Amino acid sequence: MGRTTPRPAMTIEGPIPWSSDKVAQLGNVGREAIAMSHEGECSCGSIRFELTAEPMIVHACHCTRCQRATGSAFVINAVVEKAAVALLSGAPRAAHFEGTRHTAYFCDDCGTYVWSEYAGGFGACWFVRVGALNDPGACPPDVHIFTSTKQAWLVLPEGVPRFDEFYDLNSVWPQAALDRLRAAAPTG
Ligand SMILES: [Zn+2]
Ligand SMILES: [Zn+2]
Known about the structure:
Elements: H1 20-26, E1 38-41, E2 48-51, E3 57-61, H2 64-70, E4 75-81, E5 85-89, E6 93-96, E7 102-106, E8 113-118, E9 125-129, E10 143-145, H3 169-172, H4 175-184
Parallel strand pairs: 3-10
Antiparallel strand pairs: 1-2, 2-5, 3-4, 4-9, 6-7, 7-8, 8-9
The structure holds zinc ion (2 copies).
């Protein structure tokens, strides 16, 4: 019966992107609780990680590639600077999707995807699988994308922006999030 050392309450340092009016605009009330911890792990627990900043945005992607890669109806990705993902244990392995800019990282032992990289303007970010977080409900989608290939039975919530394909960042993201992306990829 080992004693467990209680973890200190987490303090998130660094930029918090969401101004309350933008949160209201995106219909994402959950994002107002900014000091929560976002820890996650793969199914077998060998990869453990923690987000040290709030996501810049959370995508639900309904494209056919994401449906195939997840074996599900859509993927939920929290977009955050690579520097804001602390790898606590394990070594995610990369799988590049031929003919795309997408590289997914997964656990070699259990196969769980933990995050993706998209080369280009988002190259400085990880797209963290929200389903791998211990509290996935803390990161509900801010936008639904590629809904032109959404599963027909799936009814999307009212009030959450949706786009047939991708979207113009400047018209959707709060300025603070745009600034963070620019700071993460100063040459992009
Ligand atoms: Zn695993
Ligand atoms: Zn997709």
